[in-house]
Fold:
Amino acid sequence: MHIIDRRLNPGGKNLPNRQRFLRRARRIVREAVRQASASRSIRDIDEAGVVVIPGNGIDEPSFHLGEEGHHQPVFPGNKEFVEGDRLPRPQGGAGGGGSQAGQGQSEDSYQIALSAEEFLEFFLEDLELPDLERRQVTTVESEGMRRAGYASTGSPANLALGRTMRNSLSRRIALRRPRPADVAEAEQAIAEAQASGADESEIAELRRLRDSLQRRSKAIAWIDPIDIRYRRFEPQPRPMAQAVMFCLMDVSASMTEHMKDLAKRFYMLLYVFLKKRYKKVDLVFIRHTDEAKEVDEQTFFHGTESGGTRVSSVLHEMLRVVGARYPADQWNIYAAQASDGDNDPRDNLEVTGLLSGEVLEKCQYYAYLEVNEPGHGSNPSSLWRAYESIAQPHLAQRSVTHREDIYPIFRELFSRNEDVRRRVV
Amino acid sequence: MSALLYKGAEWSYDTIQRIHDAVSEIALGEMGLDVYPNQIEVITAEQMLDAYASTGMPIFYNHWSFGKHYTQHEMMYRKGLMGLAYEIVINSSPCISYIMEGNSATMQTLVIAHAAFGHNHFFKNNQTFRDFTDARSILDYLKFAKSFIAQCEERYGESAVERLVDAAHALQPHGIHRAGKRRTTDLRDEEAKQKERRIHEAQMYNELWSTLPTTPGKATVTDQQRNAMNQRLGLPEENVLFFLERNAPRLASWQREVIRIVRLVGQYLYPQRMTKVMNEGTATYVHYTILHRLHEKGLIDDGAFFEFLTSHTNVVAQPGFDHPAFQGFNPYALGFAMMQDIERICLKPTAEDRIWAPDIAGCGDAMGALRDIWANYRDDSFIAQYLSPRLMRDLRLFAIEDNPERSTLLVKSIHDERGYRNIRRSLAKRYDVSYTDAIIEVVSVDLLGDRRLVMEHRVVDGRLLATSEARKVLQHVADLWGYEVQLKEVDAMKGKVLADHHARPSQAAFAA
Structure:
């Protein structure tokens, strides 16, 4: 008989298998996150949560018999039954329903808890900001240290030992500090002279030599304060990308609550997305009827106003704000406009002029979202057609009716794949 | 009482050695067991979880599904929903028993008696294990399998191998030669054979053959030709994996080899499913007897004996059908009860026993009778032969008839004179793998036409396959076969087709 102690064997024998499993599950988790986010309210989009991933995809199917058909199961523990008794069929496998227990229906699903960070990670996976690198160097925010040569002062923790010893060595060579071996040699010479019975004066000469060597090595320090060097660090200014996001919305009477809700969801997504990519994201809310006004968030979504609709007004207002506070060479400018597509027909010409001219030139990305009431035919509106005629790569337009369409559309706009992004619905 | 093997719960390697020797004396000397040489390995909880995930084997190829099982077990263990087994034992020679480091000395004694002697004897002597497994070379074979699959992953990519193993795993239960002449494979030769096959293939390769014009031939193929072709392929064949490995037209040789590995591993594990009750019953009976003898001989003290009784009682608990903890029959409980009952029949038979088990009743040699039974039966035949009326009464068994056409269940028989035979037959059937598993055969393949593969599920008692999973498995079959596959579910008695599934190879089919 052998006894073998396996406790010290390297653990993690199953690591490769676990990694393979997670990789396989990852695809499914991503799917589940996308589905979960469609039903989630946008406000909670960056919160932690549990997603349930279906058992299939990571199940291992086999041919097994289903539940139908005749069975004649046997059970232990009879108390009162006699032959010929009729029993009601148990529901849901509880109690006497042991007949179901044996038949492993593997329709189980797995719960996976994701942190807020992971949730967003999955949520925004393979999305990308267009033209991110164009205008980046802006506000300088210092962060991080960088190695910057050596200094003669510093904290002991930063002592540069190699450099210090190099200095010490070269100084000792330059000042001809006797090596310990030299002193030992002199001692030996004295001992030999004494042993061989050399005369007194010769020994005295040797002693003098030794003493001078000893004196010299005492006078010249092994490590002198002037040898010491410290690693120097200096703060590294890092350029930081900053972005401003313009939320433009038509609040004229024809915009229903449903439409505003759709717009809001889209803005939220864009905000979360920008937040992930830029350290600093400013939000500017501009609403318009036939005239436009910059407002705070609360008023933007909940304030009421009535009037006609002139889209050009909101573009003028945006340009004014950009000119006043967000110079285009320092800020990445994103704009998302939501409207039901109604516009004063006389205004369309001015809108296209403004957009294709100054606005698009300054913007990193301009998304136009046409929101519809469910059940209405989707005839392209006059505004839609006007935007269509501009056809610039960083002008995107989409039309949306249902809440659950928002996320797919958002993905489509920011997907890494150029072909998908360019496609106009 | 001076020669106690150990005191208290602490143990050392010396203790283990002494325990093993004392247990061995009783098991081999008094009980006449015949075992493979033992190898006892001490492991930690994490290593036990590792072992769980890969069906207990110490070496196994990599696959995501083992990681999935590991994750499940780990979570349950961490949450405290699941305790770990005290031991795992491997049917190999030498017989490897893993024992947990956290066990007390008494538990180690129990585990050594249970696994290193009980299971070990059963592995070595039971006919099912002798037929299906090759204990001497399984570990070498698994080593070969692991390195072969790793090589394939390196050469053909992890995902290609993963998909193949997925498909083969789905069909693993249908990769066993159940009937007819047993074809035990000598696993030791497997590695050499694999090389040989590849060399043969390379030698036989001749560019000329690929230039042969395809015979224009007659478009119509007679039934006779088709039958001859099927016969040549050995159809019908219930070993679906074997059939695919041999005959799937589009697989590369490494793919056939991977299928073969999965198939042989499946075959190695198969007897465990057929002998669950007997195997655990044997081991439990053995540890029970041995621990009693150790106590009688004064080798363990009363405290240790009580500790053993507590854990033994937990292991053989059988809650009734209406108990919240009821999860079907506990193989330990049923097996142990039957073994004890057989002992009783041998030594103190009643008149009833003489009628029901005339071959052993009153024979006086309980161990001899048990050894014979352990060698020659598997669960279904064991229950059909030896479940006594007395035990049926003790367990208060009753059989329910579940007819889907009726809204209520019928109590068909209870533990009385009229019910014994029916209960025994019904219970034996629940352990008969040819009844609990779906019987699926490859029945025909149209090699002269569109190469469609036809499989048949012989439906007994109207029990059809679970549809959604069957579709997925069939998809795997189609991917392996490379052409259309059909699965007919045919009533075994009436020959009526009850269901019909089709699958075409997907984009990701395996092609050489």
